[in-house]
Specification:
mainly alpha; Rna Polymerase Sigma Factor, Chain: A; 9 helices
Length: about 200
């Protein structure tokens, strides 16, 4: 990486405000302050990618504050940047915590819905009616349901067999496939009755 020129705090602020060699000033910020700021993020549970993302957002925020004349030099630039990064990271952690809680509720609800049909799928694969219904769902759904229910593969293992990005994508696809299958069963009274009789 090219080494940026040295700046005093006053010179750095002037370069940002007046946009004099702004790229050099930004490079200097990264060279001088990325490591201590990133170390804080990693110390509080972040990954290296999290640290990079937070520091980038921190620099953008700092430049905005300086240009708007809101930086009062009541703290050193290093202290200010770490403080901004800390606020950004803690807010991100709160978002992730809330998102994780919502995801747990969502997954719990889906598990209950899936339970209504999971027993039928695991027990009735050899029956012609269900096999025909699964076939109607199309090849992607057929592959996912077969791999999950009949070959007992995990979501991670399914990702290795099918062209999906990650486990969450597979979960979402499986859920939609089960919804479609439930709809087909309910939409065909004859098959629905036969399946109901078989599962009594």
């Amino acid at each position: 990486m090219k080494v940026a020129g040295k700046y005093s705090d006053v010179e750095l602020l002037a370069a940002i405000r007046e946009e004099q060699d702004l790229n050099k000033a930004i490079l200097y910020l990264y060279q001088q302050y990325a490591v201590p700021t990133s170390s804080f993020i990693i110390q509080y549970g972040g990954s290296e990618q999290d640290a990079d993302d937070v520091f980038q957002e921190t620099v953008i925020s700092f430049i905005d504050v300086v240009k708007k004349g809101r930086y009062r030099m009541e703290a050193s630039i290093k202290t200010f940047l770490v403080s901004v990064a800390r606020n950004i990271w803690f807010n991100e952690l709160k978002k992730r915590e809330r998102s994780g809680y919502r995801e747990k509720l969502f997954e719990h609800g889906r598990d209950q819905q899936e339970a209504d049909i999971s027993f039928q799928i695991s027990d009735l694969e050899k029956r012609r009616q269900l096999r025909e219904l699964v076939h109607q769902l199309g090849e992607p759904c057929k592959k996912i349901l077969m791999l999950y229910y009949y070959e007992n593969l995990s979501m991670k293992e399914i990702v290795d067999h099918l062209p999906y990005e990650n486990e969450q994508v597979v979960r979402n696809k499986k859920y939609k496939c089960l919804q479609s299958l439930t709809g087909l069963i309910k939409g065909n009274p004859v098959i629905a009755r036969q399946i109901s009789e078989i599962t009594k």
